[in-house]
Amino acid sequence: MDKALKTNEQTTVEVKPLKVKKRKAKSLEKQKSTFGWLFILPFLLGFILIYLPMILSSIQISFSSIAYEDIGQVLTWVGFENYSKALLEEADFTKTLVECLGGMAFDIPAIIIFSLFMAILLNQDMKGRAAFRAIFFVPVIVSTGIIESIDLQNTLAQLGDQVSNLNGDGVEGAVNAGTEIINAIDVERFFGSMKIGSELAGVVSGWANNVYNIVNRSGVQMLIFLAALQSISPSIYESCKVEGATGWETFWKITFPMISPMILVNLVYTIIDSFTTKSNIMMSFITTASNEANGKPLGTAMAWLYFLIVMIILAICAAFASLFVFYQRREK
After folding, report:
1. In the chain, which residue ranges form alpha helices assigned H by DSSP?
2. Closest CA relative to residue 66, chosen from 291, 297, 287
3. Which ranges of 63-181 does DSSP label H, i.e. alpha helix?
């Protein structure tokens, strides 16, 4: 017995495991960050090489006056003269700016609410859901690029024909007869018994007449909300049903918090889109001022003032909305 144990001990060979050097794999967050930078790299190169020199040149022009001589365009530094002139001397600039901000205060919430409402409807399980989604996104395609320019030209042509057809008998409102859905006078008659003033009637008629514009500008926001709604796990809604939660409670305690990050995204996108669209009266005013004789420095100063005001409004709205944004934290 002892001899057998000795032979087993002698024949046993200790095998050491081979040490294999493992390459340290990148974490998922680092990989996402790398691909993100690669994705925006073309934009960064284009911005630095093309847009940044143009931005610096426009800043220089806004603080200068332009004189055209034989050697070409000569810039003379005048400091904040163009900015003070735009704010203190150009009354139309301030008036147009206030009117623009007032219009955006009504349009932006209407676009967000309408796009969220339509996204919730289109997220329901129904027949022809894909067709309905395409129908509501068609106005976004129609209102972009060359089609938008053609539509704008047709509208201007119709307005010109209506003006030329006026017979000079003092009839007012004929120009807008074909573009308004309802008139403020009709709203005043409807609300006459309620003792509602003309200001509120004008607001109501403005909302009704702006429905076409709101629908056209809600397509992208609707798709973003739709993607956010589809990212919510169905098991969460099943748990709510088991617990006896109503649809109203489910929306405010589950759906709304889960899509709140996309509400912030849509808010930022809608503000930027509303303040930079071609139909914006402030953009048209700045373009007209820049095209006047020797009006380029003043128009550039107006553009930078408008840009700063938009950035301040955007920062305030984003900071306020971020207080209510819910970010789901996953355990690592």
Report:
1. 2-11, 28-46, 52-62, 81-84, 91-122, 129-142, 145-164, 184-190, 198-209, 211-216, 219-230, 234-242, 247-250, 256-276, 281-291, 296-322
2. 297
3. 81-84, 91-122, 129-142, 145-164
Q: What is the pLDDT of residues 17-71, one digit of tens each?
A: 555 555 555 678 888 888 889 999 999 999 999 989 998 988 888 888 887 776 7
Structural domain boundaries, residue 124: 83-143+217-332
Name the domain count of the chain.
1
Whether 198 shows a pLDDT value over 50: the answer reads: yes
Class of residue 156 by CB neighbours under 10 A (exposed 0-12, middle 13-18, buried 19+): exposed
Which pair of structure tokens corresponds to residue 270? 């809608």
Amino acid type, 327:
Y
Ranges 177-191, 230-244, 274-288: which has the least confidence: 177-191
Average of pLDDT values for 128-140? 72
Long-range contacts of 104-108 (CB under 8 A, 24+ apart): 104/271, 104/274, 104/275, 106/203, 106/206, 106/207, 106/210, 107/210, 107/213, 107/214, 107/217, 107/274, 108/267, 108/270, 108/271, 108/274
Q: What is the CATH number of the domain that holds 294?
A: 1.10.3720.10
Domain contains 264? yes
Residue 234 belongs to some domain of the structure: yes
**Is the residue at 328 inside a domain?**
yes
Per-residue pLDDT at 39: 92
CB 60 within 8 A of CB 73: no
Q: Write down the pLDDT at residue 149.
A: 60
By C-alpha distance, which of 223, 224, 229 is closest to 265? 224
pLDDT beyond 80 at 306: yes
pLDDT, the chain, mean: 76
Residue 252 lies in a domain: yes
